[in-house]
Design goal:
Structural class: mainly alpha
Number of helices: 8
Strand order of the largest sheet: 1-2-4
Shape: elongated
Order of helices and strands: EHEEHHHEHEHHH
Helix content: 40-55%
Oligomer: single chain
Strand content: 5-15%
Number of strands: 5
Distance between the termini: 35 Å
Radius of gyration: 23 Å
Largest sheet: 3 strands, parallel
């Protein structure tokens, strides 16, 4: 069943852009992984605002245990510990896909993840995944932390830069919305003013569907 403004749609769009803000990491990753395997192209933006259940201290301890996993004789061969929110999400999704097969590798190539909302995705309609929203899936009293804060604690250094760019984007977006709203109001006033003049032409316009 199709849901407006969500990832689920009867018709497969060319590229689906997901706003990851206030989504649970694991639930979001599982939905994206399934869609990728089905042939959908997915772009995830604002990955720094993804939430993880459990407090920041607990998540940092878990991540520090993960950082200790290494190849004894040649650590550069892996495992590779990504610090940025976008790559953490990418790695989570990779774990849900058979990425060593041709089908899995092709699915993973259909996925992109970004911190913030870079062009051209700032001018594209963004979707949400209701099954992964924190407000619907996490108890109100439950502790949580954001992926951006966790990443900053374990070595990601670009948080302030992303925050500055997001502030500028939101400012531009607000200006565009105000201009658009003003344009709609002007068009409505013009339509109301011209209604009296067009009343006489209604019989002519009706047959062509313009009355």
């Amino acid at each position: 069943a199709g849901k407006q403004g969500s990832l689920y749609s009867a018709k497969m769009e060319k590229i689906v852009v997901i706003d990851c803000r206030q989504h649970m990491l694991g639930r979001l990753a599982s939905v994206i992984a399934k869609q990728l395997l089905n042939g959908q192209h997915v772009v995830a933006v604002r990955t720094e605002a993804i939430t993880i259940s459990g407090g920041l201290v607990r998540q940092k301890m878990k991540f520090s245990r993960f950082l200790r996993l290494r190849m004894n004789t040649n650590p550069k061969k892996g495992p590779i510990h990504y610090r940025s929110p976008a790559r953490i999400l990418w790695r989570t999704i990779r774990g849900m896909i058979p990425h060593k097969t041709k089908r899995g590798a092709a699915a993973l190539e259909r996925f992109k993840a970004f911190e913030g909302v870079p062009p051209p995705y700032d001018k594209v309609k963004r979707a949400v995944v209701p099954d992964a929203l924190k407000v619907l899936r996490l108890q109100t009293s439950h502790k949580f932390c954001t992926l951006g804060k966790l990443a900053a604690e374990v070595g990601w250094k670009h948080g302030p830069t992303v925050a500055t760019l997001e502030e500028k984007r939101l400012s531009r977006s607000s200006e565009y919305y105000q201009l658009k709203k003003k344009g709609v109001q002007v068009a409505l006033k013009a339509k109301t003013a011209a209604a009296g003049e067009l009343k006489a032409l209604a019989p002519v316009l009706a047959p062509v569907g313009m009355a």
